[in-house]
Design brief:
The complex is a heterotrimer of chains A (122), B (118) and C (241).
Chain A: H1 17-44, H2 50-57, H3 63-91, H4 99-121
Chain B: H1 7-39, H2 46-53, H3 57-85, H4 94-116
Helix pairs in contact in B: 1-3, 3-4
Chain C: E1 3-10, E2 19-26, H1 33-44, E3 63-66, E4 69-72, H2 78-81, E5 86-90, E6 97-99, E7 102-103, H3 106-114, H4 137-145, H5 153-157, H6 159-163, H7 170-180, H8 188-195, H9 209-213, H10 220-237
Parallel strand pairs in C: 1-5
Antiparallel strand pairs in C: 1-2, 3-4, 3-5, 6-7
Helix pairs in contact in C: 3-7, 4-7, 7-8, 7-10, 8-10
The chains are: A mainly alpha (122), B mainly alpha (118), C alpha+beta (241).
Chain lengths: 122, 118, 241
């Protein structure tokens, strides 16, 4: 296979729903994977007793931390709903005409979830 | 089978493991999101979390399955992303990703024990 | 009469040494992008190299990148893509360039062959005709994907093709799917092994750019999803070793 130089697409070829859905899914996945070791370590502090965990949870009062939590919930919810759309496509059926609606529903549900969380956080 | 698995078979099985763990995570995450939305009301405290989870076989089983599914799903996902950013060869990254999977498993099970047993 | 300001990519095979040149083309009603390219070559600059054949949307030879998207230029009305009078025409992405708007399609064809995109017969002329139920799920899956004429628009539109040089691409995989579903075909195991893996269906990330741009409204996305399913179960049963 020759590795001859070719031209590549720019943003104009990517301005459609399926592409944005892919990008959101990838970014949210990587962010969540990076967050998990931290999440597990913090929870693991309960081994040293509730006081140890509370010391770490005190951080969650900080408004910046609260905002990050809302973002994390949004990332988790959007990765879930986007993932369900992919599972549907790969194991049940893929119809071109369903995709814009499915993507909108996925995004909307995730946003709603994050909103509910944010409201309960306040 | 004496011959080692072909690359194609390995990729197909990784794909399947990714989707199977995704299906398990779909259920776990729905429960987790609902739990978080309810639990975060009135602030987060260790006492509140532990009162719910300590001594509960149900929560231990739930979080145990959750951690296992994540330890399969996240590394396989990262494998694809890293491979695409570095020329497309997935095999080279397998050692590093296996290490990440073990890290998640160890830290995750520690967390499960921490909140359900203490 | 108004004019169009048309930027056309000139150069090749060295992409780095190429660039856009601007031409002023008279604007006409019901003008297609192919009409514009032809005008430039015949009336302004005869050194412009480009490809076309049927010019009525049947052969796929005139595919180029128009304002950033891969299209058949004979079926693209200027009015639809350049309402403000600005038109940019370049060769298809992901294909090596021979010169100007003409690309080298050998890799594209090679990948079709590597995906085992050809039918392997199992019967002879002495055997009765194969009975294939048109309403069966397998035949309907084939019908949905069989009209591909290999124009390369999907391949040019797929970012994974750009990121992963070994990736067989949507057209080759779409064709493989039609053969995997063909009950008369005799190369199933070989074909499944050919289209699995890093270079095969598992590299697809469902961007859907292929299905979005296919001039025949085919959905390689759906075909590739089917291949992912099929290869996964073939791996489990040991059909792929």
């Amino acid at each position: 296979m020759r590795a001859a130089a070719t031209r590549y697409n720019d943003g104009r070829a990517r301005g459609h729903a399926g592409w944005w859905a892919f990008l959101v899914h990838r970014v949210s996945g990587v962010a969540l994977a990076a967050f998990l070791p931290l999440h597990f370590t913090v929870l693991g502090e309960a081994l040293a007793g509730p006081a140890a965990l509370d010391r770490l949870l005190a951080w969650t009062q900080h408004p910046l931390v609260k905002a990050s939590e809302v973002v994390l919930v949004l990332l988790l919810a959007v990765h879930l709903t986007g993932g369900l759309r992919l599972l549907l496509a790969e194991f049940v059926a893929w119809r071109a005409e369903w995709q814009p609606l499915l993507i909108a529903v996925a995004g909307g549900t995730a946003a709603l979830c994050a909103l509910l969380f944010a409201l309960n956080l306040a | 089978m004496t011959a080692p698995m072909s690359a194609q078979r390995r990729e197909a099985l990784f794909w399947l493991a990714q989707r199977a763990s995704a299906a398990a995570l779909a259920l776990c995450v729905v429960v987790h999101l609902a739990t978080m939305i309810v639990a975060v009301r009135g602030g987060l405290s260790a006492a509140e979390i532990l009162a719910r989870t300590r001594g509960s076989v149900g929560w231990m089983a739930f979080y145990g399955v959750f951690v296992l599914a994540v330890a399969i799903h996240a590394p396989i996902g990262l494998r694809t992303v890293l491979a695409e950013s570095s020329g497309g060869h997935r095999r080279r990254l397998d050692l590093a990703l296996a290490a990440f999977a073990l890290l998640l498993l160890a830290a995750g099970m520690r967390a499960v024990v921490a909140v359900t047993v203490g | 009469m108004s004019t169009l300001s048309v930027r056309v990519w000139r150069g090749g095979p060295d992409i780095g040494a190429g660039g856009f040149e601007t031409y002023e083309v008279p604007r006409l009603p019901a003008q297609t992008v192919l009409d514009v390219v032809t005008h430039i070559q015949r009336r302004i600059d005869s050194t412009l190299a480009y490809r076309f054949a049927c010019r009525v949307g049947m052969c796929g030879s005139c595919a180029m990148t128009v304002n950033g998207k891969a299209r058949w230029t004979c079926r693209t009305h200027v009015q639809a893509v350049a309402g403000d009078g600005a038109l940019e025409i370049a060769p298809l992405a992901h294909f090596p360039v021979i010169r100007d708007l003409v690309t080298d399609t050998r890799d594209f064809s090679d990948k079709w062959a590597r995906a085992k995109g050809e039918f392997v017969p199992t019967s002879t002329r002495s055997d009765p005709f194969a009975a294939v139920e048109p309403a069966s799920a397998a035949r309907r899956a084939i019908d949905a994907a069989i009209e591909c004429i290999g124009c390369g628009v999907c391949y040019a539109s797929c970012d994974v093709v750009g990121w992963n040089p070994a990736y067989l691409g949507p057209a080759a995989l779409n064709r493989a799917w039609t053969l995997v579903n063909d009950v008369r075909d005799g190369a199933r195991a070989t074909r499944l092994a050919a289209i699995a893996g890093d270079a095969g269906c598992h590299a697809c990330h469902t961007h859907q750019s292929c299905s979005e741009r296919c001039p025949k409204q085919l959905a390689p996305t759906a075909s590739i999803a089917g291949l992912k399913r099929t290869t996964a179960f073939a791996a489990l049963t040991g059909e792929i070793k």
